[in-house]
């Protein structure tokens, strides 16, 4: 299949999943009537669909795309297929900083900035600890930073008087429920911009596949371009964390599933990864909202339930390849 | 001209006051025992490693003053163990580091290295020798598509994956390319006899010091080489006066 066919297929599947998600739990005829404002439609249902469901689905899709982009970028930069923003602690740093900003009653716009700063700080810490590119070290440093951020976050939330801060589960397991139209628009714009900027890094990321030094010999300022890539990833991740909490493993699963389906070529991967991430996130959100309806599961439960075994599978396969 | 002026380095290998001048149109060879710092010197010349003191000058400018993109137009390097990126087609690999697309340069690079049949293969499926040729083609493409001058091709053990016949052909063709395109070729070699046959200029490096440098005839002499490798050698000559060195 060509890249174009995959693009169409993924876009259609994401569209289909979004429509199913939009209409889930309601009778299709009345939902369509409400959406098209046919005579006799229920205005409450229309409001529910357009002001609650739609922003939620758009947020989920955009967040998924952002996380998948972040995952792919981090994997390419660190030459490490197992790297993922959640696993290596970037999301944890972002969540902690966002929660701190909320606790300090910063305005909403600054919360995303704080999350970005937190994610970047976490990344710096991990890079210093891991000292370069050894695969296992990066992950181990990530585990430590993750644990630290997670416990500080829990400490912060439990010691603060009940107030504007959302609960621990939101931060640690993520949720797209309650996303506003503004949030959805912010995430969607960010997803578009970051995916395009990452696409512009394609030549660099391709050269990087030959190793850092070879990329330098190929004319790339590896330090500067590498930071640009990593900042895009932390920005993507920070934004998602600030708006939706920590939704794990999408950054790991989306690029890997694509690699199995379309091969390892970087440019098609860069093009398709955001869509794959969007599809996974919309599906995960659909399951999270419908599995125990009317109760709602945090979406991170679903992505982790699928992602953790997937990670173990990748780890086992990597070990097999090295043996 | 590419000039190393009084280069000193501690890590990853020790280099002590190494100077050398490399000219376009010539094949220069760096010879020396294992651990002498040959590859390190090559990466200093390429700009990926910075010296502790001293500097490498390219065409009258210190390398540190040139951007990575500017450098890539004037020098390329083929590593000793080049990467084998899984999922990347040879065709795609050839474009890496090439700033301005030039079909003629691409074709020349493919012709020189005879990789016509490999273009659609995945890099992961290539043999060691094929991979070496593909990376050489990529580096040639990078330089030949640039109109800057002078241009240098740095090669870290370009014959390591090749048999005796292929290695000989490789160096002969590299020397010819150097002449034809006025490229300065700098190759780290282990085989003294390949240097005897093909080198224009030679730098002998031992424990981070330049023992001798100059024309191939002046430097590839029995006493110098014995001292270089700390090994008794014998020099053989055939009826045409061609020389070879064997150990023992």
UniProtKB/TrEMBL annotation, chain A:
<dbReference type="InterPro" id="IPR000522">
    <property type="entry name" value="ABC_transptr_permease_BtuC"/>
</dbReference>
<keyword id="KW-0813">Transport</keyword>
<feature type="transmembrane region" description="Helical">
    <location>
        <begin position="299"/>
        <end position="316"/>
    </location>
</feature>
<feature type="transmembrane region" description="Helical">
    <location>
        <begin position="138"/>
        <end position="158"/>
    </location>
</feature>
<keyword id="KW-0472">Membrane</keyword>
<dbReference type="Pfam" id="PF01032">
    <property type="entry name" value="FecCD"/>
</dbReference>
<feature type="transmembrane region" description="Helical">
    <location>
        <begin position="170"/>
        <end position="195"/>
    </location>
</feature>
<dbReference type="InterPro" id="IPR037294">
    <property type="entry name" value="ABC_BtuC-like"/>
</dbReference>
<protein>
    <submittedName>
        <fullName>Iron ABC transporter permease</fullName>
    </submittedName>
</protein>
<feature type="transmembrane region" description="Helical">
    <location>
        <begin position="86"/>
        <end position="104"/>
    </location>
</feature>
<keyword id="KW-1003">Cell membrane</keyword>
<comment type="similarity">
    <text>Belongs to the binding-protein-dependent transport system permease family. FecCD subfamily.</text>
</comment>
<keyword id="KW-0812">Transmembrane</keyword>
<feature type="transmembrane region" description="Helical">
    <location>
        <begin position="269"/>
        <end position="293"/>
    </location>
</feature>
<feature type="transmembrane region" description="Helical">
    <location>
        <begin position="57"/>
        <end position="74"/>
    </location>
</feature>
<feature type="transmembrane region" description="Helical">
    <location>
        <begin position="232"/>
        <end position="257"/>
    </location>
</feature>
<feature type="transmembrane region" description="Helical">
    <location>
        <begin position="110"/>
        <end position="126"/>
    </location>
</feature>
<keyword id="KW-1133">Transmembrane helix</keyword>
TrEMBL record, chain B:
<protein>
    <submittedName>
        <fullName>ABC transporter ATP-binding protein</fullName>
    </submittedName>
</protein>
<keyword id="KW-0472">Membrane</keyword>
<dbReference type="GO" id="GO:0005524">
    <property type="term" value="F:ATP binding"/>
</dbReference>
<dbReference type="InterPro" id="IPR027417">
    <property type="entry name" value="P-loop_NTPase"/>
</dbReference>
<dbReference type="InterPro" id="IPR003439">
    <property type="entry name" value="ABC_transporter-like_ATP-bd"/>
</dbReference>
<comment type="function">
    <text>Part of the ABC transporter complex HmuTUV involved in hemin import. Responsible for energy coupling to the transport system.</text>
</comment>
<feature type="domain" description="ABC transporter">
    <location>
        <begin position="2"/>
        <end position="232"/>
    </location>
</feature>
<keyword id="KW-0547">Nucleotide-binding</keyword>
<keyword id="KW-0067">ATP-binding</keyword>
<keyword id="KW-1003">Cell membrane</keyword>
<dbReference type="Pfam" id="PF00005">
    <property type="entry name" value="ABC_tran"/>
</dbReference>
<dbReference type="InterPro" id="IPR003593">
    <property type="entry name" value="AAA+_ATPase"/>
</dbReference>
<keyword id="KW-0813">Transport</keyword>
<keyword id="KW-1278">Translocase</keyword>
